[in-house]
Amino acid sequence: MSKFWSDAIRDLTPYVPGEQPKVSNIIKLNTNENPFGPSPKVTHAIHSFESNKLRKYPDPDSTSLKNTLADYYNVSSNQVFVGNGSDEVLAHAFMAFFRQKEPLLMPTITYSFYDVYCNLYNINYEHIPLGDDFSIDLTKYQRPNGGIIFANPNAPTGKALTLDAIEGLLNTNTESVVIVDEAYVDFGAQSAVSLINKYPNILVIQTFSKSRSLAGMRVGFALGNAELIEGLERVKNSFNSYPLDMLAQDTAIAAIQDEQYFQETTQQIISTREWTTVQLESIGFNVVPSKTNFVFATHRYLPGAELMGFLRTHNILVRHFSRPGIENHLRITIGTPDEMSAFIDCLKKHPDISTLD
Amino acid sequence: MSKFWSDAIRDLTPYVPGEQPKVSNIIKLNTNENPFGPSPKVTHAIHSFESNKLRKYPDPDSTSLKNTLADYYNVSSNQVFVGNGSDEVLAHAFMAFFRQKEPLLMPTITYSFYDVYCNLYNINYEHIPLGDDFSIDLTKYQRPNGGIIFANPNAPTGKALTLDAIEGLLNTNTESVVIVDEAYVDFGAQSAVSLINKYPNILVIQTFSKSRSLAGMRVGFALGNAELIEGLERVKNSFNSYPLDMLAQDTAIAAIQDEQYFQETTQQIISTREWTTVQLESIGFNVVPSKTNFVFATHRYLPGAELMGFLRTHNILVRHFSRPGIENHLRITIGTPDEMSAFIDCLKKHPDISTLD
Q1: Cβ neighbours of residue A354 under 8 Å, at least 6 residues apart?
Q2: Is 90 exceeded by the pLDDT of residue A21?
Q3: Count of structural domains, chain A
Q4: Cβ contact (<8 Å) for B238 and A49?
Q5: A188 contacts chain B (CB < 8 A)
Q6: pLDDT category, A356, cuts 50, 70, 90?
Q7: Which residue in the set A28, A227, A238 is minimally distant from B119, CB to CB?
Q8: ipTM of the complex
């Protein structure tokens, strides 16, 4: 605490990301990273980069990247916004759209950065409880609000909504912005991108950190009506003209240009997820049906914190959230087939699991 | 304008950076970029980068970069903050320190992004006029305030303050944060970094975009008392956990590690600046004494806008600001010796300059 801080800074509770251990020989299933490296086209973009160009500022509008995304998603480039990871895109969106009189609505259990943005920008918000099976019921969001945000598939549950459910909400919720955070959508859920030309108030946010294997490069984007995108540009250009460096722009373009690699790696992760789910169920876990690159699972009687500690002593990291209602769940990122075999084998060595049945 | 925007967004006037032309064969003296590429160590860092690492998130704390900067400036690593360009560092600093009851004080003529941040965060501010010679008189800032910010050397004037003048201010201004924006300090001015252990309320902000030739990579930093740095970290961690990608961190470290290249290129720019100043004075310009990588100059009788247009028709870009008081000045970035010769030769072809004397 310092007398020099603005008053509001004293009350901030910053987001705490999953641990990034500085040692190797760890199986890291705690931050939903892709187990495969980025496309060889990304490697080529980096290794053939003409470093002399770095003396100049990058294109502040990331025009080539926006055009590449517009082509890929079949939208106009003025319907595309890009930022330094989807976290920065989300931050600007909260400022641009959610500082309203009525409260922002979001699920009780979802990406925990949403609450942090609300505190940062002094946004009034309300949590809407999930169903007992962790499902989001969008009919509960049909009441006066200053905005709605949810992740689809949701995190850390991995559960997806249908496009029909989202369209049902948009049909009645016409006066505030609805943000669908699709960080994990490429692993099997339905994207709402197809709705942006039909509804002026939906903003879809995606990231290169998961399915595109570029967490280390920090690129995220939003797709929506041109007026929403203009609102984001106004905030961005009042904050930082050049959020994406030259290599971030180039590597993101290269990643989009390798559709085959994207399909292959994504399908591999989906297959491994299904295998992992079956294995976990066979040793006493309940697993929430996942459309993401992680599974959210709870053991029949072993506490989540204890399981996390047990795995950690065997150099396997998973994510555990201590908040009530999910304190016995683990969020387990889907790694390579070998990593997931090692993970399952490790669990089978737990004295209370090995004596099951 | 959109009904979906938060009210405050409607009144934003975003910052407009200098033009980044998409064609080549232009002599670009309009955005204060370094005419030399980055150090060969930067090139090596990029071309030897193991791209597979990009699947993981970068170190959210940029620990290695902070340690490298701490060693270089002989401070502790908890006195170092890093961000996505000094623009992002400034944005977080405005939020962390300047949202106060009393107004923020800044020079009438300085980096024009400061006003933009104030509008973004709803900060009350007052402009303090410069002297007729564009000097900043810090005794005028000794009155109740919620913070003080100025660039040293100032932009777009290029004029520097002495360390004694800054220390004089700090001796009396003890209750609010004083930010010294040293984007251009490496081109001949005195840095205030030596004051951060003596005064708890000074924050020095620098960038890799100018003297380190890394504008394309987006890295800036702040040095100050650990409590001020903690305030910045709180804002950063409530906004975006990972603002610096892996390559931004690696290239910035490589740039700091090549002191010889830094000294040689910086000295070359200083020599070319002095040569350019003499040449401009010989053809009827008044040039403000500069400690930066640009000169701020006005012709004895030719209007600034006309000169900018004339240069542009000859594929030379310089920056012109239309604001009253400096509307007849040009801000001219110092390029290579060849570029500056071409620039001077071009001016000598102007009919009203060639007939001088």
Answers
A1: A348
A2: no
A3: 2
A4: no
A5: no
A6: low
A7: A238
A8: 0.96
